[in-house]
Amino acid sequence: MYGAGDVRVEDVPDAALQAPTDAVVRVVRACVCGSDLHPFHTLPASADGQTMGHEFIGVVEETGSDVATLKRGDFVIAPFAYSDNTCEFCREGLHTSCRQGGFFSTAQAEAVRVPLADGTLVKAPVGEDSALLPSLLTLSDVFLTGHHAAVMAGVNERTSVTVIGDGAVGLSAVLAAKRLGAERIVLMGRHKDRTDLGREFGATDVVAERGEEGIQLVRELTGGDGTHTVLECVGYLPAYEMAYGVVRPGGVISRVGVPQYEEAPIGFGSLFGGNIRLAGGPAPVRAYLEQLLPDVLEGRIEPGKVFDRTVDLDGVPDGYRAMDAREALKVLVRP
């Protein structure tokens, strides 16, 4: 990406081992993330550009001399953040804060160098032609980001839920909340094809209105109280303002939409007066992946339904355009 709206496909040097703990993974599926649209809107123009992509699944092609748990030919899922899976933060389930870790930014490609391969990659018993590939890819980021929103909010069978945003993360949060037992899930979104999928995933109510009108409608649906939890899956200030507008006193707002703001209300009229807690952050995907993998492998959930367009690498620039124009919900990349 060379600047806002300027995505190009280029030949670059092949991915190669740089450390004995590395692996090289041939990408079988990748995708465009909603968070990729933030630089697509705002990235300053540059002569060098920056590589893109952080969600991928694939096959191990090569391993460094210190890699002990992986071999050539293994099918693997890569969390969007690499980690050693052994430091104190990883042991506490916070792999995105791993002392040796970092974030991928080269996944929209034919192959990726994976640092800390033993700690990062999770093997899956599938072939390259498996019908499960789209859903397995969501375990790299999008579904487990929605799951993280629900977990951080404490969603269970006793909590009502509002999900703000009908993008792929918002719909994933609906599915995650349903999986955790929530019986009342209000989805705030205005694109019918997306909210229809949200209903399929478990939403009991849909509110298309935004701002004060949307807040009032959610309040009316909940007897005036709001919901116990709010999963904010957008990242813009108006979404945060709706979140504290619809949360029940004593409730939790969990944010997983990458915030495009640094300052936001936290005072008496927003969080303090209602004893509202604020949670969320980047999902520690590695902490959840092995727990959720059987649900996908055994067909209990199908989060891959969020993909509604497939492109090859040459089609990635148009994939960005289509997602930005709301012509596609989430674009799958098949190199």
In a few lines, what is going on in this structure?
By secondary structure, the chain is α/β, with parallel strands linked by helices. 30% of the residues lie in helices and 20% in strands.
Walk me through the structure.
By secondary structure, the chain is α/β, with parallel strands linked by helices. The protein folds into two domains: 23-141 and 284-333, Medium-chain alcohol dehydrogenases, catalytic domain (Quinone Oxidoreductase, Chain A, domain 1); 144-280, Rossmann fold (3-Layer(aba) Sandwich). It contains twelve helices and 15 strands. Strands 1, 2, 3, 6, 7, 14 and 15 form a seven-stranded mixed β-sheet that branches. The chain has a six-stranded parallel β-sheet with strand order 10-9-8-11-12-13, with helices on both faces. Helix 6 links the parallel strand 8 (161-164) and strand 9 (185-188). The longest helix has 13 residues, at 285-297. The chain is globular. The two termini are 18 Å apart. The model has no long low-confidence stretch (mean pLDDT 98).
